Amino acid sequence: MDELLGDDGVLLTPTVASDGWLADGRLGAESDVHGLPPEVYSTAMQNVTGHPALTLPFGTTGAGLPFGLQVSAAHYDDYRLLDIADVVQSAYPWQHTATGYKALVEILDQS
Question: Is this model's pTM higher than 0.85 or not?
C-alpha cells in the first residue's frame, strides 16, 4: 500500500464488492444465513496495514440500491480523506432519508 499510494495518492474502491444482499444478511438465496463472505468487504488491507480509509455515499445502482465509494490514503493522511469527503459532500449533498420513507423528525412531528 505504501508503494501504491506514495506520499499523496489515494485509492478508490467500492465500499462493498457486492451488488447487494438479502434483508436477512445472505448474499443470495443459496447462501448461508450467517452473514456475508469475507471477500465482499473492501477494508481487509486497510485493517491489516493501518492505512486510513473512509466511505462516501456515492449514488445508487441501476436497481436502486445505494452504493458507496471507499477512499484510502497514505499513513497519517487522514486530513486528505476528510478534505475529499468535504468536497464530495458539498458537490453532491448526502441524502439523509431513504427514497420512499419519511424522515424520523417528520414522523415524530406527527405524534
Answer: no
d(CA 19, CA 58): 14
Grid coordinates representing 60?
445508487
Question: What pLDDT was estimated at residue 36?
Answer: 67
State CA 55 to chain mean position distance: 4
The number of folded domains in the chain is 1
- Taking the C-alpha atoms of residue 58 and residue 94, their distance in angstroms, rounded to an integer, is 8
End-to-end CA distance of the chain: 52
Q: Which strands, in side-by-side order, build the sheet including 10-14? A: 10-14, 66-73, 53-60
Domain range for 9 is 2-109
**Low-confidence residues in the chain, pLDDT < 50:** none
Rounded Cα–Cα distance for residues 27 and 99 (Å): 23
